[in-house]
Amino acid sequence: MADTLEFNEIYQEVKGSMNDGRLRLSRQGVIFKNSKTGKVDNIQASELAEGVWRRVALGHGLKLLTKNGHVYKYDGFRESEFDKLSDFFKAHYRLELAEKDLCVKGWNWGTVRFGGQLLSFDIGEQPVFEIPLSNVSQCTTGKNEVTLEFHQNDDAEVSLMEVRFYVPPTQEDGVDPVEAFAQNVLSKADVIQATGDAICIFRELQCLTPRGRYDIRIYPTFLHLHGKTFDYKIPYTTVLRLFLLPHKDQRQMFFVISLDPPIKQGQTRYHFLILLFSKDEDISLTLNMNEEEVEKRFEGRLTKNMSGSLYEMVSRVMKALVNRKITVPGNFQGHSGAQCITCSYKASSGLLYPLERGFIYVHKPPVHIRFDEISFVNFARGTTTTRSFDFEIETKQGTQYTFSSIEREEYGKLFDFVNAKKLNIKNRGLKEGMKQSYDEYADSDEDQHDAYLERMKEEGKIREENANDSSDGSGEETDESFNPGEEDDDVAEDFWKIGDGDSDRGEKKPAKKAKIVKDRKPRKKQVESKKGKDPNAPKRPMSAYMLWLNANREKIKSDHPGISITDLSKKAGELWKAMSKEKKEEWDRKAEDAKRDYEKAMKEYSVGNKSESSKMERSKKKKKKQEKQMKGKVEKKGAASKSSSSTKSSAKNMSESFKSKEFVSSDESSSAESKKEVVGLFGGGLCWVLFYLIPTGICSS
Asked: Where is the sequence biased in composition, kind Basic and acidic residues (predicted)?
């Protein structure tokens, strides 16, 4: 028989909610790891008192009772797994796995039995339902009645908040069954009462989550936060982890307490308690216990009189009472030497700490992500600027966290950290690509030789020259400027020109000249200039330096662990410069061979495309010829229209010379105000027509 059994997708029933995880049974005991919180429940084999197999809503379930009264429930088993589990319990735990089904008759009259921390309501020998007494927040009594109130469950859509039991009176003298019932409940219920004196008190501590200043009273079993508005009582059993994190300014410290279940204030849930301390603040602390009690309870971890930094005293006391390790940042160091990275999560700016087994972000909202729940990470370009990037984390449950606005100098350090922790990187291989894009857009003020940057500039110049050579002599049309006033220019757009004239003198005021547009250099059509690169064209050969760099890049990385791409390029440039002439000749020969292969491939490529390019050239010449013919026709029509307009204007002047002096003087004022010269352009024949509008409505042309 196997020494261990493992089951995936098993659900643990805790306070009315089902938490999925992995269950492992071994000779030493039973271990369950919660997939969501990472919390581990470890039950020693020697502590097991009873095992029950029963049918539940999620298939079949296993209920384990320990000798000290604790109850553990695990659901999600298949019926076929009973025999395997039963044999394992007999062989390793020496327990019979009993089959006991729940009663489904629907009766509400039965017997209440208290067993350890469990209240069981039975009908006959079969249980109807069970209530873990740790879920009870309050117990009140009435006449023949007991009311149980429960803690609200945040993970469930609907929470059971209250149950009432009717207890009939008995004939026994001196024993009140209602009070006996209530005392049994309260002895095991999770009802926090601040009785007795506190071990110590820390006054006016700055708390970031929940925000405010609180007095922290340390009791033997719970922590009491007393503020001006709210009070919180936190049992030590709800503390998952403790973190002590240095601020980036090296003058402050964060002390973070992870809670499950969280503390509540209305509809707000606080999964983390974050305290902020100044490193310069000291305190002298005296515990409210005698020295023998301190030595007996804390076994040298605490003393009656202590002094030191405030954050050290708080963390030391919490570590001794909660009995959990304090997590601090590991070996990670950012670009500035700090153990954290400045970034933004959602709408707030904060600090991301890479730890030895996860990431933690403080402070609004706090986030803790363990490595074992990460599916992959991703490095993405910043959405607003090229001087920053985003760090994305996706968990196995599908939740995505995006930490944005991280300075690009932190990229190399963070990438190396993630790579060393063997996390899956979604865009692996992008490390050099990202640095390339940053180098292209950044303003470099460095005087040192950057071989990578020089190559990028050289390739850009070559691409520009090729684009200019390919566009010359292609016969493409250019945009023409509109220059009115020139004799042979064609009119390029419709317009209306309005000017005043004096009919009494027979002469015209010079019309306002249209603004002359200066000749501009012909521009290539934008569509034509942005030609896409042929993917079938042969790729340009690398230089001797680039061939050498590609062959030796990994060696340089191994010789200088953690080196950034910019530093690697500088180091490569120095090594290449110091290389002997004989070694360089070897790479020069390889570069010459690559160049010959490229030229040969280009010849084959150009022969294949020659026929296609000749066809395109013939079609362009034909199009140009047709446009030239159309332009000639338009010029002829324009000349004809000008001659006709000149004859009409001479006839008009002759008729005006025969007007009498009286006629001219009588119409002088009115004609000066109303006569308008209108020049119209009609798209069909491109002709000029002059209209004189007279108040009487008569029109002469």
From this structure: 494-509, 525-537, 627-638
The DSSP secondary structure of 322-369, one letter per residue, reads HT-PEE---S---TTS-SSEEEEETTEEEEEEE-SSEEEEESSS-EEE
Rounded distance between C-alpha atoms, residue 111 and residue 370, angstroms: 46
- d(CA 107, CA 127) in angstroms, rounded, equals 11
Q: Please give the pLDDT value at position 1.
A: 59
The mean pLDDT value for 399-423 works out to 91
Distance CA 592, CA 445 (A): 34
CA-wise closest residue to 451 among 439, 467, 438, 465: 439
Within a 13 Å sphere around the CA of 58, how many CA atoms are in the beta-carbon half? 16
More confident residue, 540 or 418: 418
Q: pLDDT per residue over 258-286, tens digit each?
A: 998 788 777 788 899 999 999 999 999 99
Query: Which of 145, 141, 159, 104 is closest to 126 using CA atoms?
Result: 104
339, 355 Cβ separation under 8 angstroms:
no
Helix (H) or strand (E) holding 276: strand 268-278
Pick from 563, 566, 569, 559: which is nearest to 416 by CA? 563
Q: Is the peptide bond before 363 cis (omega within 30 degrees of 0)?
A: yes
What is the predicted pLDDT for the residue at 124? 85
Q: Decide if 550 contacts 542 (C-beta within 8 A).
A: yes
- Residues 15, 151: contact at Cβ < 8 Å? yes
pLDDT tens, position by position, 506-525:
444 444 444 454 455 555 44
Distance CA 24, CA 161 (A): 33
Percent of the chain with pLDDT over 90: 16
Q: How many CB atoms lie within 10 A of CB 349?
A: 12
The H or E element spanning position 530 is none
